[in-house]
Amino acid sequence: MADVVELIMQDHRTLEKLFDELQQDTARRPELLEKVAALLTAHSRAEEERVYPAVAKEAGERDEAHHGTEEHHEAEEMLEELRGMSPKGKEFEAKLKEFVDAVKHHVEEEESDILPALRDAVSAERLKELGTAFAERRREELTGSGGNGSTSGSEERTKDELYEEAQELDVHGRSTMNKDELAEAVDHQRSS
């Protein structure tokens, strides 16, 4: 398993490629936006739950970890706005630029401050352990398993189907939810 710094930076490069495609290929924007949303959400959850605690405790960068989490949430809010807009309008272009700039700023801060501090503070073995934990949590998020064992009837519906239902029902915070959370929120909204 690669170390956590390498894995995080791989995701950053993938996001940058997706951003380039999003800006250039207007016809594929809805599809590309969903890819960005899936990767960004999985990446953010994995960092916040598996990496940032080590950054705060072992690297002594509590403020940086907190700031990183705040930037994740801001990016997710912008992404949610983008998902609700027509990809052909001028407003979309402006919001897309704001979103891409915000994520690139976060990536730059993470790669110049947070990740070097973590690499300096822990052993190579610990970086690999964190890499394994990051990769497992990221995979849970991408596959919709979420790791909490709850099902709420989610086996029959894909995460994308649940997200569309949540969008139709105006479930708040849906972009940050895993498959099980989406299923629970959709079921709750339908029953109320």
TrEMBL record:
This is Hemerythrin-like domain-containing protein. Residues 4-118 form the Hemerythrin-like domain. Signal peptide: none annotated. Residues 133-142, 169-192 have a biased composition (Basic and acidic residues). Residues 133-192 are annotated as: Disordered. The lineage of its organism: Bacteria, Bacillati, Actinomycetota, Actinomycetes, Streptosporangiales. Pfam families: Hemerythrin.
